[in-house]
C-alpha cells in the first residue's frame, strides 16, 4: 500500500537521520538533586575524549556509533517523579469521584437517609433518576472530558505555556469538586432536582479543568529528561553506550502510567466503600482533599521543572502551512489526490528556502526545519486516526464487562469493584515489561518500536474481547434464564466472577502496548512548540470512540452480548492488521523521525521585536 510519496519520504528520512547523527547536539543539563535512579547511574563514567564533546561533558554520537553501540535509557530524575505524583493525585480524585456517579444518579435515596449511604445490605443512591439518565450523563462526561484537552492545549502552546495552564486548570477543577460536595450534602441531596442541577454543572466545570490538565501534564513530564538528543556514555566496564532519548521517553511514560493506575485503583475502591458506609458527601470530599496536593507539589517544584515557552499562534500557522501546501492538489479522483497529497514535493515546496522572499506569505516566520517538524506531527496524527477502533474494546470495561459481572456469582464482592482488575494488572505488568520483557526483546535483536507496540495493543485488545465472548457464552449456557441472564428476578449464573480475569489482564496488556505508546508517540513526533496540541489530538480519539460506540448500543443487551464482544474483537483485530499494513514503512523511519532537528518559529511577540 506504499505510494510514490512514501518512497520519497524514505529517502528524505534516511538523509535526515544521517545528518542528525553526524551533527547531533545535546541540551545543557540543569543543576538538580540526584534521584534514586540517577544515583544508581554512577556506573557510567564519561572520561573518553571525543570529537563531539560538549561543554557540559555530554558526548554526541557519530553516525557509526548510532548504528553499532548499544542503546540504553537515561535515569529518571526527581522532577519527573514529582509530576507523576501530581498525576496520581489527580487520577485518584477524578476516578474516585466519578466511580460513584452511576449509583448517585440512578438509585433512589434510601429510606430515612440524608447521605445516600446504603449500609452493609442496602443499595446506596441519591437522585433516583434511573439507568437511562445515569448512562446519558456519564457518557456525556466521558465525551466532554476528552474534547476539552484541545482547548487546553491551544492555550498552552499559544499563550501561557504548559505549567500555567495546568495551574489554572487545577483551579477550575477544584471549583468543580466543590460543586460536587455541595450536590451531596444533606440539605441539598434530599432535593433531587436541585442536586442533579448542581451535579451537571460540576461535570461541565470538572471536564473543562480536566481537559486543560491532561493535555499538558503528559508533555510536561517527558520534557524533564536531561537531553532530547542521543549522547554517549562509557560504563565502568569500558562499554560505550548511546543514551537514547526515545527509550527514555518510553520508560518515563511507562512509569507515568504506573502512577496513573495507582490513583485509578485506590480512588474508586475507597470511594465505593465510602459511598456505601458513610455517604456520597464523603466520596466527593476526600478526592477533593487529595486533589489539593496537586497545586502544592507543582508549586514546590516550580523552579526545578523544564518549561517550553509559548511561541504565539503556532497551531494556526501549522494549519496554514498545510493548506498552503495543499493548493492545487485537490482532485475529484481520490487516487490522484492521495498521490498528490503524499508526494515528496507536498512539504518540500513550502519550505521557506524554496520560496523567493518577495513571494513568501507574511505569516511564514519559520525555517525549513520547522516545516519538517510539522510534517512529522501530521504523520503522528495520521497514526492516531486508527485509535478510536482500539478504544472500542477498552471502553467495555466501564459498561458491559461491569454488567457481565453482575450476572455471575460474586460471593459478596460488589460487581463495580471487579473492573479494578485492570489497574491492578497494569501495576504488575508495567515493571514486568520495563525490567524483563522489553530488555529481553532488545537483547535478542527484536526492535521494540512504537508502531509495533501499538499493533500489539490492537491484537491484545481483540484477544480480550474473545475471552469476554467465551465467558458470555457460558453465562448464557449456565444461567437459569438462558439467553436472558440479566432479567429482573433471575438467579445469577453459578460461574465465578473471577473468570473475567483474562479479559481484564489482556486489556491491561493492550494499554501498555497502545495507550502508553500513544502518549510516547504524541510527544516524540510533535513539533517542540505543539506538543500539547498533538497530545490533545491523541486524547480526542477517545471521545471519537465514545461517539462511535453509540452505534453498537443495540448489541449491549441480552441475548446479543456474545455478538457485542465478538464484533468489538473482530474490529480491533482487523484494525490492528490494517494499521500495520498502513504504517510499516513509517516504522522503518522511526529513528530518522526522532532525530529531525528542531526548527525556529518566530511568534507574534518575537516578530514585533524583530521588526523594531
How do you describe this structure in short?
The model is unreliable at 1-34, 44-50 and 604-612 (pLDDT under 50). 64% of the residues lie in helices and 2% in strands.
List low-confidence stretches. 1-34, 44-50, 604-612
Numbering strands along the chain, what is their spatial order in the largest sheet? 1-3-2
According to CATH, what is the topology of the domain at 378-595? Growth Hormone, Chain: A
Number of strands: 3
What structural class is derived from the secondary structure elements? mainly alpha
CATH superfamily of the domain at 378-595: MFS general substrate transporter like domains
* CA radius of gyration: 26 Å
- What top-tier CATH class of the domain at 378-595 fits best? Mainly Alpha
CATH architecture identity of the domain at 378-595: Up-down Bundle
SSE arrangement, N to C: HHHEHHHHHHEEHHHHHHHHHHHHHHHH
Detailed description of the structure:
There is one protein chain. Among the domains are: 311-366, no CATH class; 378-595, MFS general substrate transporter like domains (Growth Hormone, Chain: A), CATH 1.20.1250.20. The protein is 64% helix and 2% strand. It has 612 residues and is mostly helical. The protein is built from 25 helices and 3 strands. The protein has a 3-stranded mixed beta sheet with strand order 1-3-2. Helix 4 (78-98) runs parallel beside helix 10 (245-277). Mean pLDDT is 85; it is low at 1-34, 44-50 and 604-612.
